[in-house]
Design brief:
Layout lengths: L7 E6 L4 E5 L6 E6 L5 E7 L5 E8 L9 E4 L11 E10 L5 E8 L23
Antiparallel strand pairs: 1-2, 3-4, 3-6, 4-5, 5-8, 6-7, 7-8
Length: 129
């Protein structure tokens, strides 16, 4: 992450080198929530009809507005809860018409990275598999 928000996660580590998967990787998925409402979804990078971050799995019945902040939800072991991911910039229906299509503008400017921070994974309670 950087001072503005989440960029991705480290997936492999070697002696003096590591590999990271950014939010803009098609294989990336981040469990998220909308800060002011608690609405849950999974953030994915899609390329059709144009490249963008989309919060998927949001029911049509959930009320959202542009400008609301999107944070990590803590619903997975990969990211702790509360890391800024982005802001809702566009709302619509998905192609199937069953859920909302929520476009999210990234919190971190992915094209202007100079320094990043690497956080350790959250500690699990003893006895957790």
């Amino acid at each position: 992450m950087n001072e503005n928000g989440l960029l991705g996660r480290v997936t492999e580590v070697w002696g003096t080198l590591s590999r990271a998967v950014l939010l803009t990787d098609a294989n990336s998925a981040v469990a998220c929530e909308v800060e002011s409402t608690g609405v849950l979804g999974v953030l994915r990078f899609v390329t059709v009809p144009h490249p963008r971050l989309v919060l998927t799995g949001v029911p049509l019945s959930d009320t959202l507005r542009t400008g609301q902040r999107v944070l990590t939800s803590g619903m997975s072991r990969r990211y702790p809860r509360g890391i800024p991911v982005g802001t809702i910039v566009l709302l619509g229906r998905d192609a199937g018409g069953l859920t909302q299509e929520v476009e999210v503008g990234p919190a971190a400017r992915l094209s202007r990275l100079r320094h990043v921070f690497v956080l350790s994974p959250p500690q699990l309670p003893e006895g957790t598999p």
